[in-house]
Every structure is written in structure tokens, then in C-alpha cells.
Design brief:
Length: about 250
């Protein structure tokens, strides 16, 4: 007969510097999930403008990737909230490198001469043949938006002394998604789409991304609470630097 399960460790508030050399149980898994969601949403749906008809607004056009890409921002919030800015920044750089690899692999596969009896080349090129302009806009927007998101959440956590998580998750998304949208859509589609369509998709996507964050706030609360209980820590970025061009933790 086994005894009672041990009680979960108490959550201890610590400065980010105290994490140096400390074993973290789930950080690697969170990073992997972050990169997978990023690659799938960017590679599969970013270039497709979709349209739905809503009862009040009528037709609404948006980028199809928006349905899943905001999940990377939720995980970005979790990473910054639970593990601090430096480790969230490292995940951003991992996603950046993975995006370059995915785009390079897509280019090689699409560019290889197809077998004479294979009829799928045009479809493959249509789906995975990224225009260099869209790719560069995508990774630049992702990197800048995620770094801004993590930095804002990190600073707000210290300002609010760890209270009112919703203000940090929503506030950081307002800034991060704003940076992302303002970089990506003009760089990727201005001059390709009608300017009015670029503006419409930009504003619609931005509003939907922020709305997604608001809707997912209860989910974010639960995930953050789970990670903090599992790790037994609550990290505060007191006295840390915010250099975006390093992966040091």
C-alpha cells in the first residue's frame, strides 16, 4: 500500500538571476511547443486571405494563419511570466532559427525537379513556395513582435508586483501584436494587394489577435498557474537587461 502523494512544492518568488544553473522541469517542452505552433501557423496559413460573413459586420477578411498564430503569443506570455524575459527571448531566437530552416527546406523541396510522372508540383509550389519578400517580412515581424511582447510583460510584472496577470497578458499583446502587424503586412503585401485590402487585413488581424488574447485569458491563467506550481517558482526580472540580440540566460 502506497502512502499519500507528496504535496506540490510551494511557489517561491525569485529574481531572474537566481535561475542561473537551476534545473527547470518543463522549460524545454514549452520552447518546443512554442516553435511548433509558430512554424505551423506561419508556413501553412500566413499568405492566404480568408473571408467570413458575420451577422453584424458582414464580410470580414483576415489572414488564415491568425486562427493559430496567437497561440504562440499565449505561450510567449507563459514563458515570460513563468521563466522571465531572458528565457522567453531564447525561445524567440529558437523560433527565428526554425523559421529560417523551414523556409530554406521549403525552397529546396519546391526547387528540385519533379519526377516526370508526378503531377503535384504546381500544388506544392502554390502552398510552400514562399516569396522571399513575404518570408523576410514574416520573420522580421515575428522577432520584433515577440521580443516586444516579452519585454512589456516582464516590465509590467515588476511594476504590478506580480498582481493582475490579465493586465500583462493583454497589455503585452496590444504592443507585441501591434509591432508584428505594422511590420508584416506592409512589408509583405503593400504593392501586391490593393492598399485598402492591406489596411483592412492589418487592422482586422490586429483586432482579432488582441481579441483572441482576451478570450484565452482564462486559459492563460490556468497554464501559468500550472507551470508555476510544477516549477515551484515565480520569476521577477529585477535589474535585468533587455538586449534583444543575445540568447544568454
Amino acid at each position: 500500500m502506497t502512502g499519500p502523494l507528496p504535496a506540490p512544492p510551494a511557489i517561491v518568488a525569485i529574481d531572474a538571476a537566481a535561475l542561473h544553473g537551476r534545473s527547470l522541469r518543463f522549460y524545454d517542452f514549452a520552447m518546443a511547443a512554442f516553435v511548433v505552433i509558430l512554424i505551423c501557423s506561419k508556413l501553412i496559413g500566413a499568405g492566404k486571405p480568408a473571408v467570413v460573413t458575420l451577422p453584424v459586420w458582414g464580410e470580414v477578411k483576415f489572414g488564415a494563419g491568425i486562427l493559430f498564430f496567437p497561440l504562440s503569443y499565449v505561450l510567449g506570455d507563459v514563458l515570460a511570466e513563468v521563466y522571465g524575459f531572458a528565457r522567453a527571448r531564447r525561445c524567440v531566437w529558437a523560433g527565428f532559427a526554425a523559421s529560417i530552416f523551414a523556409a530554406g527546406m521549403s525552397w529546396v523541396v519546391v526547387s528540385l525537379p519533379p519526377a516526370a510522372d508526378w503531377a503535384g508540383q504546381s500544388a506544392l509550389a502554390e502552398v510552400f513556395g514562399q516569396v522571399p519578400r513575404i518570408f523576410l517580412a514574416s520573420i522580421a515581424a515575428f522577432w520584433a513582435g515577440e521580443i516586444a511582447n516579452a519585454a512589456v510583460l516582464s516590465r509590467m510584472k515588476v511594476w504590478t508586483q506580480g498582481r493582475m496577470l490579465w493586465t500583462r497578458t493583454i497589455g503585452s499583446t496590444v504592443v507585441g501584436q501591434g509591432v508584428d502587424s505594422l511590420i508584416f503586412y506592409p512589408l509583405a503585401f503593400l504593392g501586391v494587394w490593393e492598399t485598402s485590402l492591406v489596411v483592412q487585413v492589418l487592422l482586422t488581424n490586429y483586432a482579432l489577435k488582441v481579441l483572441w488574447e482576451v478570450i484565452l485569458t482564462p486559459v492563460t491563467y490556468r497554464i501559468v498557474a500550472w507551470f508555476k506550481r510544477a516549477e515551484g517558482i515565480d520569476v521577477f526580472d529585477r535589474g535585468v537587461g533587455y538586449d534583444p540580440f543575445t540568447t544568454a540566460v
